[in-house]
Amino acid sequence: MTDVAAEQATTVDQAGRNDTGFARLAMVTIDCADPVALAAFYGELLGWETRHVDEQFAILDNPEGGSPLGFGRVSGYRPEPWTEPDGGKHFHLDFYVDDLEAATARALALGATEPTHQHGRTLKVLIDPAGHPFGLAPLDA
Fold first, then answer.
1. In angstroms, rounded to a whole number, what is the distance separating the alpha carbons of residues 88 and 65?
2. Which of 35, 62, 104, 116 has a CB 3.0–4.6 Å from the CB of 71, allowing a cystine?
3. Which of 138, 125, 136 is nearest to 83 (CA)?
4. Is the per-residue pLDDT at 116 higher than 70?
5. What is the rounded CA–CA span in Å between residue 105 and residue 7?
6. CA–CA separation, 127 vs 110, rounded Å?
7. Lowest mean pLDDT among 38-42, 70-74, 81-85, 96-100
8. Which of 3.40.50.970, 3.30.300.20, 3.40.50.2000, 3.10.180.10 would CATH assign to domain 79-141?
9. Residue 60: helix, strand or coil by DSSP?
10. Pairing outcome for strands 69-73 and 28-32
């Protein structure tokens, strides 16, 4: 590594981020059949406000100033078959919660479902109303 490359690799900005990247995350967008319903589910789950909603796309704002969460309509959308023996998953979201049991109950009341197979003892895997897996984990785990 040249001296210039080493200096660039160790440059850190005022927020403490490494300065080697050239892009910033703008938003995570989740494909689904009904963006209005899925945005409502995650809005309640996270306590985030809706910035935009229409039949094709919805956006929730992150109140902590991070990237927003988007939901886009996909014609012919089918849930990921990750709970099937041959199934896989494309992505999943994990969330910290203060009380795993209470958070699980609230997510289920909002429309999430709980698969019979769980991947571990400290992470609770649930399925959102569009069929995407997501995890709840205790903050102190």
1. 32
2. 35
3. 125
4. yes
5. 50
6. 11
7. 81-85
8. 3.10.180.10
9. strand
10. parallel
Highest mean pLDDT pick, 6-15, 45-54, 74-83 = 45-54
Q: CA-to-CA distance for 50 and 104, rounded, in angstroms?
A: 23
User: Do 79-141 and 24-77 have the same topology in CATH?
Assistant: no
Bridging pattern class, strands 93-97 and 57-61: unpaired
Give the whole-number percent of the chain exceeding pLDDT 90.
58
| CATH class of segment(s) 24-77 | alpha beta
Domain residue spans of the chain: 24-77, 79-141
Contact (CB, 8 A) for 44 and 32: no
